[in-house]
Amino acid sequence: MKNSFKILLFFTLSVIFIGFSEPVKAQTENDSSDFFAVASIGAFNYGIINEKREWVIKPMFEGLLLIKSDNHYSIIAKIDNVWGFIDTKNDFVSMLSKVIWPTKPGELHDIDGLWSTPPQFDRVFGSSVKLVVAEKGGACGYININGFWVLPPEFVYCSIFSEGLAGATKDDKWGFIDKNGAWAIFPEFDNAKPFSEGLAAATKDDKWGFIDKNGAWAIFPTFEGLGSFSGDLASASLEEKYGFIDKKGAWAIPPEFDYVEAFIEGLAIAEKDEKAGFIDKNGAWVIEPEFDAILAFSEGLAVAGYDDKLGLIDKKGNMVIKPVYSELDLALIEKLK
To answer: pTM (2 decimals)?
Structure first.
């Protein structure tokens, strides 16, 4: 069921509405709606709708990606498999923070349809950061939120900046660079994840451990897999079982689950015998494993369901919305929170 979580997340957050046959005229005046959501007509025709399901941004593109730095927003669009930045003007900028954005990168066009940086990137990702990963010509580097290169594309693989450092590769080995592009941690690891709470998961010889910002092992590589730290706990796997470790590398929650995800709002998704529920930081079931698919809590509510039908539960496991939807309308969820 591990893959089902990822598939469910994509389809739930994409808010795909197949029912529209013709695009509604884009709004050009200030829209007073309280809620907006990313939507599409079929595949790869994304735009933004308001709570009346009227198109604010016509469904002309494959998806959407919002980049935020401080109080400045930028939007990236993709045309013919290349990416560029959209010139966001007028009322749409003030509305950006209210849009329910998917986690998967995509594209859109603004109301005026003006490119501030012409499409030129093969791929971009990262949000709420001042430096965004961009790929071009088989290499990756970092651009600012206006679409200009800050660190040129000279790496094979790049990860987002987190806590001032970003993972990057040289000669098939991972290290970490600072925002000037200098190696803060020399590339000597087989794989690495972004820093969280001062530590980053990294591998050597097919075993995972945690390194500090000097590149020294804080937790020696003895695990089959590791997640990032959240609230002083990180998911870890050993002998195909999952639990949580503390920052000393000791088991805080023994590896007795078939799968777990990070703690969010005090609860973590856990799976046993192909059913999923939520555990607390003592490893006790708060919501018994009875669901076929679930997502993490957000503002006290979580998507959960049976047999491909989805609803919403609260932190006591009560159904707020019965599981009758194949794809949940995020605008509706937002109103219920």
So the answer is: 0.68
